[in-house]
Write a structure and sequence with these properties.
This protein is an alpha+beta fold. The chain has 17 helices and 52 strands. Strands 13, 16, 17, 30, 31, 32, 33, 36, 37, 38 and 39 form an 11-stranded mixed beta sheet that branches. A hairpin with a 3-residue loop joins β11 (143-145) and β12 (149-150). α6 (585-596) runs parallel beside α16 (864-872). The longest helix has 22 residues, at 727-748. The model has no long low-confidence stretch (mean pLDDT 96).
Length: 952
């Protein structure tokens, strides 16, 4: 399209921190001959579009500065004759996260009008638009986590929510600040959204689980120290540093209690802490005497952000006093920071040490003289000598009681009340509210709602409350054996402060949860809750696929796996709907294969595969997740991307994709081949992850499985190059693959064990483990010659006891592929029923990230049963690219008497049903006429086949 609009913002500030802005423009429009109206819009970081007060769109999808997307929203049905108002709310993050790389604040919009007489006109954003800071949102707050970004804290008393309406008076709003013409500036050329719009659905809770009165811990204090330790830093890369932060504690009485830190060190700065001359660790019992005490916390390690959340659980009040000031100046806090004494920057280049946190080392020097000396300051008098080195933390970097996770998790239950019928009114879409009376014991009222399944979207409230009533809304995924599984690592919440009267609020924070916990704080009058619901949204996911069979447990497993895949499919495939919502490159292959048998979203798969090389400006090895500037490379994830390209062509039939993606494929492959050492082994410094298991794989050295994977990707690259007529490239990659496979057997095969070791350290030391995982992957990567394959097949079925076992749902996906090739479908079904059956028995509606224990109760890589059951139990085998031809191949399984279901294909849906009940073998298949069907083998095996044709 031809852009005539300009990028605008409220002022000239390029990277405001956590700022929301509002834009308005009123147009005169004649609808007499109006045929069509489309609004093209983009923003940085995200936007919500309104036309005459009605929500009309949001976006953009995940973008990079070199490939920024815009949305196109139909608007003709929302426009009316005469005056019309377009309003846009924009949230600029100011920090990178794991879904966005910090760029520049801005918004661009163009309304294209088309009339029946052939005339077209465009109205674009420019300095004539009105712009204003959205004053309802608090800027200096905490994050939900580094993956997702800022917590939403909204005060309805501070902003008129009618600002989107055409009747709103914006005469006192300033004009917008023009940045540049669209096509220029920080975003360059804009690209149209190339995937389907989200499907939306309103979901109400199914049960009011509990009504309680609670009292949270005394306070949780969050210290945002990023600007003090890393001034000007806006990236999402890990922060590796040493330093201290602290204050003076003042108590009017002796007190006992505990200090803990919310989450793990990966999600918040924490460490051992000193009170006067004694060191403590989180959770230790503390006994403090009346008076003042020096408090200092040691920061020494790898942190994903520079915010610390201190949970003070004491009965007696604690005051914080500046170590050197009785009277604070305006803008100062009582907290001080000291350092950093040492910093290390993590770079994902394959050469430098990773120090990303997962390898349990930081690279920091605890014996560094300045740091060691600072740690000896055990009194105010001793600290006085270093007074000039300590800096005061600004007051707006100290946030009280906004780590909602802590307030919900660490509390005293004052009373558990019966759930009454009148309370349940909030479950329904009607006009009678649930009235929440004032708490009897001076605490907070707390309600827990169960939505029946885990969903993702935006929470909306309709209520009547007194001005100043605070509503904290927190989501979690599961209740296990009567115990709430709180979201450690995620402040999965938002806060709403009510104005007086009846009001509605729709959060702009996308949240995943099954259960909502609502706490009503600072309540001065009864609160009427009319509605609490979720505006659920995600990538379109109709029931293209179906599956039922004679085993009810398998049917339940298929259903929870299907729902898992659905809630983990957004504008990319994401790992989980709650904790991260991150596009992990390695997870994408599993998600795509599952999707082929559930939804057939080929355009989304291609979109994801095209995105991956856009991280090459951050690392030529390609980042493990994107868009982000977290320096994390997992070689196996990049190799999975390469293999997923092969899968995509096979399932979609879109071989044209190879020509466009090959240059990026070859570039990445060449970068990885630079790490072949003198023994032709793949030797690299990176996050060499294969599975969440205790495998001894060097972070600096050779990982056996990923060595095999690189050789396999060279073979795939050679095949692709050959198809594209690049014979020289094909010969090069075939030669590399051959050398690597020879090196694998020569250097990593342990004759005595008759097995491959898991890896070799750079100094030549062999790793200490053998694993099922390594051998499963080498089998799939065609790294085993005929002799080795026959030696190992029995062990692939029944691994020795000293091998690391495959337990995780993720690696089970690959194990099932091996067992299926060996004709062991019975083993696959047995394992599926054992692992996923346990999830069903726990009442889960989604598949867990790990087994038998888990953090996330919904994870895309755990939806493997949908792939296995759809591919192997329905009796339909893909023979040609894009399902152009299929073979009817019925499963050999004593445990299943019948099965039926559907498989999406590029030609349309295939419906299949088979049964061997009553001694008869019958199969009915409905197939698009463009698909060639081979049924001879099934008929020879005694199956009676009926094929029905439908037009494509």
């Amino acid at each position: 399209m031809e852009w005539k609009a300009r990028w605008i913002w409220i002022d000239s500030e390029k990277q405001p921190l956590n700022k929301q802005a509002c834009f308005r423009k009123t147009f005169e429009i004649s609808k007499d001959e109006l045929e069509d109206a489309v609004i093209h819009i983009s923003a940085d970081s995200c936007f919500w579009l309104y036309v005459n007060g009605k929500r009309a769109g949001s976006g953009p999808i995940r973008s990079t500065s070199e490939h920024w997307y815009y949305e196109s929203c139909s608007a003709a049905h929302l426009l009316r004759e005469g005056s019309n108002t377009i309003a846009v709310q924009v949230w600029h993050y100011g920090h990178s996260n794991y879904q966005y790389v910090e760029n520049r604040a801005g918004m661009a919009l163009q309304l294209d009008l088309k009339y029946s007489n052939g005339i077209t006109e465009s109205r674009g954003s420019d300095s004539s638009w009105k712009a204003h800071v959205h004053e309802g949102y608090k800027r200096n707050t905490v994050k939900r986590n580094v993956n997702i970004g800022w917590l939403e804290v909204y005060d309805a008393r501070s902003w008129d929510d009618s600002w989107t309406a055409e009747t709103f008076d914006d005469s006192n709003w300033p004009q917008a600040h023009e940045i540049c013409q669209v096509g220029e500036g920080a975003w360059g050329t804009l690209y149209p959204r190339d995937i389907e719009p989200f499907a939306c659905n309103r979901v109400f809770p199914r049960q009011l689980v509990s009504v309680s009165e609670v009292k949270p811990l005394q306070m949780v204090v969050s210290l945002n120290m990023r600007e003090m330790f890393f001034p000007g830093s806006r990236d999402a890369n890990v922060k590796i540093f040493s330093g201290f932060f602290g204050t003076v504690l003042e108590l009017e009485h002796d007190a006992a209690g505990k200090l803990s830190f919310a989450h793990s060190p990966w999600n918040g700065v924490q460490g051992r802490f000193r009170i006067d001359d004694k060191w403590y660790k989180t959770g230790d019992e503390l006994r403090l005497t009346k008076g003042r005490h020096l408090f200092m916390t040691e920061a020494f390690g790898v942190y994903n952000d520079v915010i610390s959340h201190l949970e003070w659980d004491f009965k007696e009040p604690i005051r914080f006093i500046h170590p050197f000031k009785e009277q604070l100046n305006e803008g100062e806090s009582p907290f001080v920071v000291w350092g950093p004494f040492q910093t290390i920057t993590s770079r994902a280049d394959g050469y430098n040490p990773v120090y990303g946190g997962v390898e349990k080392r930081s690279g920091l020097d605890r014996e560094l003289p300045a740091f060691a000396e600072a740690g000896k300051a055990d009194s105010l008098a001793a600290l006085e000598a270093y007074k000039h080195e300590l800096r005061t933390l600004p007051a707006d970097c100290v946030i009280y009681n906004e780590m909602i996770y802590s307030l919900m998790h660490r509390k005293e239950v004052l009373a558990s009340n019966a759930v009454r019928k009148e309370h349940e009114r909030l479950l329904y879409d009607h006009e009678k509210p649930a009235v929440i009376e004032l708490p009897a014991q001076g605490g907070d009222q707390e309600l827990v709602l169960d939505f029946g399944k885990l969903y993702v979207g935006e929470v909306a409230l309709e209520l009547q409350a007194a001005e100043g009533t605070v509503i904290d809304v927190y989501g979690f995924e599961a209740v296990v054996n009567g115990s709430i599984r709180y979201t450690s690592g995620l402040n999965n919440a938002f806060r709403y402060t009510a104005r007086g009267g009846r009001q509605t609020f729709r959060s702009v924070s996308r949240m995943g949860f099954r259960y909502l916990m609502i706490a009503i704080r600072q309540q001065t009058a009864p609160v009427s809750l009319y509605r609490v619901f979720l505006e659920q949204s995600g990538y379109p996911a109709a029931d293209q696929a179906q599956f039922r069979c004679s085993d009810p447990l398998l049917n339940d497993i298929w259903e929870i796996s299907r729902h898992t895949s659905e809630v983990c499919t957004e504008d990319t495939f994401v790992d989980c709907p709650t904790f991260e919502r991150v596009f992990w490159v390695g997870d994408c292959r599993v998600s795509a294969l599952v999707n082929y048998y559930l939804f057939g979203s080929y355009e989304l798969v291609r979109h994801c595969l095209e995105m991956v090389p856009r991280s090459s400006d951050k690392s030529p090895l390609l980042l493990s997740s994107l868009p982000t500037d977290w320096q994390s490379v997992i070689p196996m994830w990049t190799f999975s991307w390469m293999i997923a390209i092969k899968d995509y062509a096979a399932y979609s039939g879109d071989r044209s994709f190879e020509a466009s993606i090959y240059p990026e494929y070859a570039k990445a492959l060449d970068e990885y081949c630079k790490f072949l050492n003198k023994d032709d082994l793949f030797d690299i410094s990176s996050w060499n992850l294969v599975d969440w298991a205790d495998m001894d794989i060097p972070y600096v050295g050779v990982g056996t499985a990923q060595h095999g994977a690189l050789a396999y990707c060279c073979s795939l690259g050679a095949d692709m190059a050959e198809r594209l007529g690049k014979q020289e490239d094909a010969a090069k990659y075939r030669a590399i693959a051959a050398k690597m496979r020879a090196a694998l057997k020569q250097h990593l095969w342990i004759e005595k064990e008759q097995a491959f070791i898991d890896g070799r350290y750079r100094d030549g030391e062999m790793s200490k483990t053998y694993s099922h995982q390594t051998h499963v992957l080498l089998y799939l990567f065609e790294a085993l010659d005929g002799e080795l394959q026959s030696k190992l097949e029995e062990r692939l079925l029944n691994p020795p006891e000293h091998w690391i076992s495959v337990i995780s749902p993720f690696m089970s996906f690959y194990l099932f592929d091996v067992w299926q090739r060996m004709g062991k479908m019975d083993r696959i079904i047995e394992r599926i029923k054992l692992v996923w059956g346990a999830m069903v028995r726990q009442g889960s509606t989604t598949a867990w990230e790990t087994y038998p224990n888990t953090r996330s109760f919904a994870h895309a890589w755990s939806a493997a049963p949908c792939y296995v059951l759809g591919k192997h139990l329905l009796g339909v085998k893909r023979l040609a690219d894009g399902f152009a031809s299929i073979e009817l191949e019925l499963p050999v399984l004593d445990s299943i008497d019948w099965a039926e279901g559907s498989i999406p294909t590029p030609f349309g849906r295939i419906d299949a049903a088979w049964s061997r009940e009553d001694g008869k073998r019958q199969m009915i298949v409905t197939v698009p006429e463009a698909i060639e069907v081979h049924q001879q083998a099934a008929e020879k095996a005694g199956w009676q086949i009926e094929i029905k044709r439908v037009k494509g």
